[in-house]
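Thread title: Can someone regenerate the structure for this chain?

I was given the following input by a collaborator and told the matching structure tokens would be attached. They weren't. Posting the sequence so someone can regenerate them.
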Amino acid sequence: MPRSPSVRIATKLSKSIYQQLNMYAFAATAAGVGMLALAPPAAGKIVYTPTQEQIPPGFGTGLYLDLNHDGISDFSFVNFYSRTSSQIGLWVSPINASNEVFSNKGFAAALPAGVKIGPKGNFQRRAIDVMASDDLFHSRCAGLWKDAHKRYLGLKFIIGGKTHFGWARLNVSCVYLHAISATVTGYAYETIPNKPIVTGQTKGPDVVEPATLGHLARGEAAISNWRVRQTADTSH
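Best answer:
Regenerated them for you:
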């Protein structure tokens, strides 16, 4: 004889069991929300700007550097040159009084790639940091940036009252009897205050948005839509 199909019989649970299940569900949800609430905040990112900006030679001219593109210049470069003067030189100056340049023995340091720029850096607050100078009468060029190629300035600057770190990459060459040739080939900064940046670093870690109560209220579809934003992968 054919077997009768199995039938699932709904069992009516007692009120006390319902209460216990609700308590378990509430406790599990609270624990889950607590873990999500403790998730680390969104990480910062490195904003990198490739460029090819020559620092124009001449008296009264220069180049302004706006690291974070907020319309406020952070540093200025001067490539001093005068046909009537025996001296020419390349200087970098912080515009904000709180901004500083990574220095070495009285000169703006010409750093290689891979150097950490952060709170423990050798920053010196001066109005002008000499990068290179040339004495036309003696045909000699001096300074840490003499004939520098892909060297980095370590920079410390202020955004909204908070300290940020960045770098600028330059190529510099001294040509006797002519103005110094200097070109900014890129610059970058770290968006998290007081977080170090490494010279030559053009991207940071992925940025993950932590879950919120709003995500839970909107359900699984919203959770599956958490976004992972990656910083732009740019080359030198």
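The chain is about 15% helix and 35% strand.
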